[in-house]
Write a structure and sequence with these properties.
Layout lengths: L1 H21 L36 H11 L63 H10 L8 H9 L2 H11 L6 H13 L7 H6 L8 H10 L7 H4 L10 E2 L14 H4 L8 E2 L21 H10 L23 H11 L5 H5 L9
Antiparallel strand pairs: 1-2
Helix pairs in contact: 2-5, 2-6, 3-6, 8-12, 11-12
Length: 357
């Protein structure tokens, strides 16, 4: 009898062990992420100092951020994604003058190009209101004239999605998807949007191509007192100082007070972040309010139409009475040079395109 009970107990143990094994989760409790190696072209500085310690670059995080960037699930009616205002072929800028929300609401600013943002240490958006890419990624979702939803609603949709649950677990080892983790993933993807392999770069850094005569004359104008572009945009690298300046477009700032709306400091009225000139040929319209639709209009402004005001940048005063007073040939040459900043590989890179079916 004892032996029978012992054998029966052993059978129960084996059966219980088998069933327990069948009920074990197929996925591990903790995922090990794969470090993401940024491909930084020659001439651009290392990005490491600007990557937050709590959001290191990983293959899983970048892939997740890319999927979220293109997913309209982040909007109230599932109709608009980040890519609805940031088009890859336009340097992740917006070809419309003003951003349009899900219900047709129109803003008062043009969406900035998302180029080399990983090096920006002076604040994001035209007025620099957010200090980090992670903070910036949170705002469009709740903006009433953009995606017009709430983060609890977005979190509920994401947590009800089996695929996203797994992707967030793999990238961040979280069991609940919250807004901060979504923003981290999107920021990771945005840090991969690196432009630095244009014709200019191949000439300036690598000496493997030649610029034509018009482009070379434009280079001299850009990099000297002729057009005086280099003081704000620099040469090589990011082609922007990312700082905030009043570039003489207005004397009345009541329509948009710019950086002043963030700081409350009178000297900041009418100041906006200096945009990069990388891929400038493809990122029209130009300026914070998209008022200029062509590079010709932009150059005309700096040549003849700079308006003095109490907060105008001192560098604008260096260009003379009303502007740099460029000749028609000067303008043509300067535009020819600006177009050498176009990076075709960046604009067509399949790793930056929509991964969603």
């Amino acid at each position: 009898m004892f032996m029978f009970q012992l054998k029966r107990a052993a059978v129960y143990f084996v059966v219980a062990f088998v069933f327990a094994g069948c009920n074990q989760p197929d996925e591990p409790d903790v995922y090990v992420t794969t470090p993401y190696e940024l491909n930084i072209p020659q001439g651009l500085p290392p990005m490491d100092p600007f990557i937050p310690v709590d959001n290191p670059m990983t293959v899983e995080g970048v892939a997740l951020g890319r999927k979220l960037f293109y997913d309209p699930l982040l909007s109230d009616d599932n109709s608009q994604s980040c890519s609805s205002c940031h088009f890859q072929e336009h340097g992740f800028a917006e070809p419309r003058r003003f951003s349009e929300g899900i219900d047709g609401s129109i803003g008062n600013r043009n969406a900035m190009a998302l180029i080399n943002l990983g090096w920006n240490q002076f604040g994001f958006f035209w007025d620099g209101r957010d200090a980090t890419l992670e903070e910036q990624a949170l705002k469009p979702v709740t903006n009433p004239i953009e995606m017009n939803t709430s983060w609890p609603e977005v979190e509920a949709k994401l947590n009800a999605d089996t695929e996203y649950k797994l992707l967030f677990k793999q990238a961040y080892n979280v069991d609940y998807i919250d807004s901060l983790t979504v923003a981290k993933a999107i920021a990771q993807f945005e840090r991969t949007l690196i432009s630095g392999n244009s014709r200019f770069d191949k000439w300036y850094n690598q000496q493997i191509i030649q610029l034509n005569e018009s482009e070379l004359r434009g280079f001299v104008l850009y990099n000297g007192e002729g057009a005086d572009c280099f003081h704000c945009h620099g040469l090589g690298g990011l082609i922007t100082d990312n700082r905030f300046r009043n570039n003489g477009m207005d004397t009345d700032f009541s329509a948009d007070e710019g950086r002043y709306l963030v700081t409350g400091d009178e000297p900041d009225k009418g100041k906006f972040r200096t945009p990069t000139l990388r891929d400038i040929e493809m990122t029209a319209p130009y300026m914070h309010d998209g008022r200029f639709f062509t590079l010709e209009e932009v150059i005309d402004h700096y040549s003849e139409h700079i308006l003095p005001s109490a907060t105008i940048d001192p560098l604008m005063e260096l260009v003379g009475n009303g502007g740099a007073q460029l000749t028609a040939q000067d303008k043509q040459d300067l535009i020819a040079f600006l177009k050498t900043f176009t990076d075709e590989e960046f604009l067509t890179n399949p790793e930056h395109s929509d991964p969603n079916p």
